Amino acid sequence: MDMLLFQLEKTGEKPLYDQLYSGIKEAIITKKITVGEKLPSKRKLADFLNISQTTIEIAYAQLLAEGYIISKSRVGYFVEDIDELPYIQQDTSMLLKEQPRKKTYAIDFNPGSIDIDAFPFQTWRKYAKELFDDASKELLLTGEPQGELALRTEIANYLYQSRGVVCSPEQIVIGSGTEQLLPMILRLFSEDTCFALENPGYPTVHRMFLQHKRQVCPIAVDDEGILIHELEKTTANVVYITPSHQFPTGAVLSATRRAQALNWAAQSPSRYIIEDDYDSEFRYTGKPIPALQALDRNEKVIYMSTFTKSLMPSLRVAYFVLPPKLLTTYNDVFNYYSSTVPRFDQHIVANFMRDGHFSKHLNRMRKVYRKKHEKLTTILENYSTQIKITGEQAGMHILLNVQHELSEQQLQHSANDAGIGIYPLSAYRLDENTTTQAQFLLGFGGIPVHKIESSIEKLMNCWAIQTKQPSSSRFK
Ligand SMILES: Cc1ncc(COP(=O)(O)O)c(C=O)c1O
C-alpha cells in the first residue's frame, strides 16, 4: 500500500500517537484502507512522517487492542474486518446532550447540606495514606458481603454507647447509602406487604417504594410524630419512621407514641418497624433520647443510620441492623452479592472510629451546629409576629411556619428570584396538600455561622416581613 498520508500537527494539543491512531482508524472505518491491507512497517512510517518509532508503536498498539488491525508475527500489521463495529459511526450527538443542571443559589437553605469547613482532612488523609500500601494489598480483593467486620464492629460499639442499640456485628449490613439499603430491606418482605410511611416524609423513600411497585400507605404526622392510631387502622405490616427527628417536620416521637409503635409491632409476627435514625447525633434540647431499637424487647425494629450527616454525604456509607429473625432471610437473599462500599473506604472509617476520631469529630460538629442553631433561632425570634419555628430540637433543619398573604408557592418563587434556595413542606407530602399555612424547611448545616444573620435578613426582606415591634403580639 501507499504510505499513509496524514497531516500531523506537531505543535498541536493532541499527542502525535493519538492523531495517528485517529487518522488510521478513520481511514479503516471509511474503507479508505481495505480489509487485509498491510500497514507500513513502524520504521518506514516513522521515516516517512518524520516522527519516532515509539509514536507509531503506541498508535498501532491501540488499534490492535481495539481490533482494527491484527499482527502477524514477523510479517507485519494488517487491517482487520470491522463488520462488527458499525456502532462506531453512529451519531453520538444524542449522547452528548447536556444533563439538566441542579439549581444553585447564592444562599441555600438546603436541608441536605452539612458544614464543610470543619472536616479533619489531615487525619482522614493519614488513614487513607496508611491503607493505600503494600501492607494492605489484601484489600484489593473482594470483601465480605455485609461489609468489613472491622467497620461493623466499630459501628456496633458506637451504636451501643451513643444510641443504646444492642446488636452484634453479625446483624449489621453496610451499604452505599440509605437509598441503596432500603431496597434490600424491601426484599426481605413478601411482595404483597403494605408499607406505612410518614406523611409528610422523606420523598426518596416514597419514590423508592413506588418504583419497586410496593403498596404504600401514608400516615399523618403531628408534633409528637407519626399517629399510631392511624397506623392501626391500616393493613400495613411494616412502617418506616424517623423517631429522633421526623423528616421533614422535625417532630420527636413522644414516649407514648414510642410505646404505641412497639406494641403495634408486637401484635403480629409479620409486623416490623424500620427506624431511620439519620441525624440523631445532633440534639439541642434535653437529654439524648435512645433509639427505638433500644426499647424494643421483641426484636421488631430494623434500625438504620448513615454517615451522611455525621461525616459527609459524598462518602456513601450507611448501615442497617437486622433483628435476628430476619437475618436468615437476609442470608438466603443477599449473601451472593458483594458489598457496595469500597473496602478501602470502609477501613478508613473503621480506623477513624477505632482511634476515637469519630467521637471527637462529632463533639466538634455538635458545637458548630449548636452555634448555628442558636444564632438562627435567636434571629428568627425577631420576626415572631409572622414567623413561628417548629421541629427545632434536633438535626440540621427547622420548620418555618410563615403567616403571609402570599401562598407558599409565591413565597418560594420570590425567594428563588432573590437567589435564595428555600424548600416548601408541600414538596414532601405524599398526597394532596391540604394545609393553607406556608411552611418551609430551613436547613442551616451548610450556611457559615457568620452568614446566618444576613441570610435571614435577605429572606425576610424579600418577603417584606418586618422585625417585631416591642409591643407587638406574638403570632400563634
Ligand atoms: C430521612 C433521611 N434518611 C436518610 C438520609 C440519608 O440518606 P443517605 O444515607 O442515602 O445519604 C437522609 C438525608 O438527608 C434523610 O433525610
From TrEMBL:
Names of required cofactors: pyridoxal 5'-phosphate
Segments forming domain HTH gntR-type: 14-82
Membrane-crossing segments per the record: none
GO molecular function term, any single one: DNA binding
Classification via InterPro entries: Aminotransferase_I/II_large, HTH_trans_reg/aminotransferase, PyrdxlP-dep_Trfase, PyrdxlP-dep_Trfase_major, Tscrpt_reg_HTH_GntR, WH-like_DNA-bd_sf, WH_DNA-bd_sf
UniProt key word Transmembrane: no
A Pfam short name: Aminotran_1_2
Keyword line: Aminotransferase, DNA-binding, Pyridoxal phosphate, Transcription, Transcription regulation, Transferase
Keyword Calcium (UniProt): no
Family designation: In the C-terminal section; belongs to the class-I pyridoxal-phosphate-dependent aminotransferase family.
Protein name: HTH-type transcriptional regulatory protein GabR
Annotated source species: Lysinibacillus sphaericus
